[in-house]
Structure prediction request, 362 residues.
Amino acid sequence: MEATEFARVSQKNPHILNDEELKDYYGSIFLCCDSNRDGIISINELKTFIEIHEEFELPDEVMRTIYEKYDKNMDEKLDLEEFVEMINSPTFSVTFQKFSNRILKFVVVPTINRKTTKLCRTITKTGSYDAEMKWRKSAVGLIIISLLQIILYYVNNFLKRENDHDVGDIYEKLSFNPCLRYQIYRYFTYMFVHSGESHLFANVILQLVLGISLELVHTWRIPCLYFAGVIGGALFHSVIDRTPLVGGSAGAYSFYTAHVAVVILNWREMSHPAVRLILFTIIIVIDAICAQMTSSNNVSYWSHFGGAVIGLLFGVNILRNLRVTQLETYIWYISLTVLGITIFTLIILDCVLQLPMTIYCS
Prediction:
């Protein structure tokens, strides 16, 4: 580094560059980052350097935010002064802990004129979650599930007419029946059969409307969450209602609370997270009120409830968290514990409770 350049930085940052060893130390770090040795650090050079130390791939939105914050002359490059200011920033050190620990472990910054501690926001671009919403080849799980449900419904109808069967062979083989709970596959396969066209397409539309936006960000995790909601819905229904069950509504309802889980995990990365949280809370409450007012023997509200519970708890554990905080880590462990206790309790109750003496078990 040029002596004049170090002097200029030292004048503007006297509490940081206050001796020759410290100047040389920062200069050596700057040179390591400046791979082409042109005296400035480009966005790609900084991104590569940080990724090596942090051991994960940085989203482009984060890098753009760094430059917006520390690139004072807006030339999309960092000179030495801007670089020193950046790596000594509390915000930067909180965001890139591994990188900062390696750089600053030998540097002691005096607490001159130090005021009370301030809370600082990590380098996270508001709206970076929305930027992650893009089409991926793996984001077709819900479409495949929906197509299978539609195909199996019409194939079952055809076989029902051909064989003069009351409900159809596919319906009979795949539907959930608590009296046949030893056939464990039924806790899962009932999602593929429906009682009618209105039942089928209501579920398909709901799961696509609620789920596609999630799948664009979380990809394969969303079909997994859907299946978990289906199984959870069957467990709740089997323990409490104990009547036959068909349809994928438990999986669809898991997406209601999955949206809430996403807001919890990515609060800082979302634009208007409070609005999203309030919106989906209102939708869930309205749906619950409507369910109470228009109760029907043909609708399994307990499977809906079970799907929603699993959607929230399992969603917190499986969905993407773009930037993990300490609080979110605690929430993750709490959700995992509650999920495990809930599933274990339901399985035990389902095994020990006596089967109902109804026509279904005759």
About this structure: The chain has a mean pLDDT of 80. The CA atoms of residues 5 and 80 lie 8 Å apart. The longest strand covers residues 41-42.
